[in-house]
Amino acid sequence: QVQLQESGPGLVKPSQTLSLTCAVAGASITTDGYAWNWIRQPPGKGLEWMGVIAYDGDTYISPSLKSRTSISRDTSKNQFSLQLRSVTPEDTAVYYCARVSSVVLDGMDYWGKGTLVTVSS
């Protein structure tokens, strides 16, 4: 059983940096065949894929967010993190971390519960 859990501040002020961490249990983030994603869902809207970090540390960021977004990892803690800079109220959303598995044809087989981040002054 793989478990993912998002953590970080629930309120961020405009122009500041949104930082979240996803703790992973039951699987190693360095194992070949898996990659680790950030996805968000603004209130009343659909899911938006933000980016991914592969088992070897390579990252891919959505073009619409690339200029503001970084994904990193701490292999000693088996966790990965999201950094979204210069936030605005439009960045208010539920943020999820999720695993992609080659075993299920690159589908996302495990998700965290999500955490709501509100951008407001």
Mean pLDDT across all amino acids? 96
Instruction: Tell me the radius of gyration.
Output: 14 Å
Question: How many H/I helical runs?
Answer: 0
The helix/strand class is mainly beta
Into which percentage range does the β-strand content fall?
A: over 45%
Globally, the shape reads globular
User: In sequence order, what are the helices and strands, one letter per element?
Assistant: EEEEEEEEEEE
Oligomer: single chain
Helical residues, percent: under 10%
Distance N to C terminus: 39 Å
Number of strands: 11
Sheet with the most strands, sense and barrel status: 7 strands, mixed
- The stretches of 5 or more residues where confidence is low (pLDDT under 50) are none
Please tell me about this protein's structure.
By secondary structure, this protein is mainly β. The chain has no helices and eleven strands. The protein has strands at residues 3-7, 11-12, 18-25, 34-41, 48-54, 59-61, 69-74, 79-84, 93-101, 107-111, 115-119. The strands form two sheets. Strands 2, 4, 5, 6, 9, 10 and 11 form a seven-stranded mixed β-sheet that branches. A hairpin with a 4-residue loop joins strand 7 (69-74) and strand 8 (79-84). The radius of gyration is 14 Å and the shape is globular.
Q: Could you write a compact summary of the structure shown?
A:
Helices cover about 0% and strands about 55% of the residues.
